[in-house]
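Minutes, project huddle
Topic: does the predicted pose make sense with guanosine-5'-diphosphate bound?
PN asked that the exact inputs be recorded in the minutes so nobody has to dig through chat later. Recorded below.
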Amino acid sequence: NKDYCVVILGSTGVGKSALVKRWVRGNFRDKYVPTMEDTYHQVRSGNRGTGTLHITDTAGGHRYPGLQRLAIARGHAFILVYSVTKKQTLEELKPFYELIREIKGRNLRKYPIVLVGNKCDDSRRRELTARDGAAYAMEWNCAFLETSAKKDVNVQELFHMLLNHAKKP
Ligand code: GDP
Ligand code: MG
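Predicted holo structure (tokens), as shared on screen:
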């Protein structure tokens, strides 16, 4: 199977959709549009033909637990997003991480996870330092980046980090 699924998880309003849109379409909107679940597909080609990259932008919070479990079960890589402007959104990632660990079980190590502190452009409202995020990343043994979907900071780096793990089709 040449498909590769990236799943984005995190509380409502942290900028999950904004990050995907920034990467897929290269733009940003200030308007808030709630998501149930959106999937973006991108055809990728390599030496052995083509494959499809699926990016699943999940609903924040835990309103659709069934969808989240299914997305995690199918996922090959995970982006856990919080907002550096809202302390509790980092803590709220814990249940998502636990769910990934529960569903992937002993194979957890095969699935790259990146912890992302978004809205790093908003220094006036910042409640979390990069060290706060790094401490969680250390505990979860995953990569960590601060990003801004708004100012296009580290968004390319984030997706490249994950896709370098994905075998070329
Ligand atoms: P989601 O619920 O996680 O999908 O969050 P959205 O992508 O819908 O974004 C929620 C709100 O945060 C919107 O008003 C966005 O414009 C804003 N937002 C998203 N990313 C950033 C960012 O990097 N910086 C700033 N300042 N605002 C952002
Ligand atoms: Mg959204």
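Observations noted during the meeting:
- Strands lie at 4-9, 37-46, 49-58, 77-83, 113-118, 143-146.
- The pocket of guanosine-5'-diphosphate (ligand 1) is lined by residues 10, 12-18, 30, 32-33, 35, 60, 118-119, 121-122, 148-150 (CB under 6 Å).
No decisions taken; revisit at the next huddle.
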